[in-house]
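Hi W., the magnesium ion complex you wanted:
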Amino acid sequence: MAEKCVFLDRDKTIIEDPGYLTDPDAVKLLPGVELALRSLSQAGFKLVVVTNQSGIARGMLTEDALDEIHNEMRRQLSEHDVELDAIYYCPYHPEGTVEKYTRVSADSKPSPGMLLRASKDLPIDLNGSWMVGDSPRDIEAGQRAGCRTVRIRHKGDEGPDEDEDVQADFTVRNLVDAARIILRESGTGAAVGKGYEAPAVPAAGTGYLPTGAETPVNNMTDSQIFGEILRHIRRTRTPEGGSEFSAIRLIGAIFQIFAIVALAWGLIYIPGVTVTAEGNFNEAYNNQIVVHVALLSATVLQLASLTFFTISKQR
Ligand SMILES: [Mg+2]
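Structure:
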């Protein structure tokens, strides 16, 4: 029986894109990818990577080198119990420098060749499947194969589209949110955040989704995904914002320490405020002044400390 599948672009969808990736040591999974893929796999989706690799036609790497890169990607995913069902790549390009690979190919996205081949090989029900990628050509390939589509637009990639005719069914910031939408829309009931309204915009192409930091997350049922999103939020927080946040808390803590010192100072002098048997009125009077000043200072310092802590929480 044909199964449902999530087709995945590789660069900037699963792994970081340093340009033309030629070194297995440079393979780095994007945050949350392993958790998103595991959720999809557990919900019954096949996971198939479809990637244009025109670097082979351009002579920048060989198919053997590409295999090493993909083995490393599989190895990193398998450390998190994620197994890809297949990886399809297109090494061809009409403007290549290596003759063997210099041609137009029906596999090259935006053509849907790799998806159509996979649908026969595995086999896959294309109408029940999804294509996820960061580029308009990923979305077009998915649409031409009959799949629903999710476009990932990373922070900083929100400029006008180079191809406004190609609009995905949904647009998100990362693969975690893409997985949420796919699971919700597919009615799998999979537990990747029940009660969570997955952010989605219609195919207007002008907007993009809020980041995880602005997304309400309710009743998370997968604590790992929640942790991963928090990690992602921390990564996207600006360094300036982070240091400002800490500085205000530090000032609050300093005021708190001075408040405690002032309080201790006042308490030490309290026994001396009563007139002793020797009747030293001046000493008792001076001690009373010290206690009043100390306790007043402690109160003011404590209020200042609370003010700074409150400000730091509101930021
Ligand atoms: Mg890409």
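Residues 191-221, 238-244 have pLDDT under 50 and may be disordered.

W.
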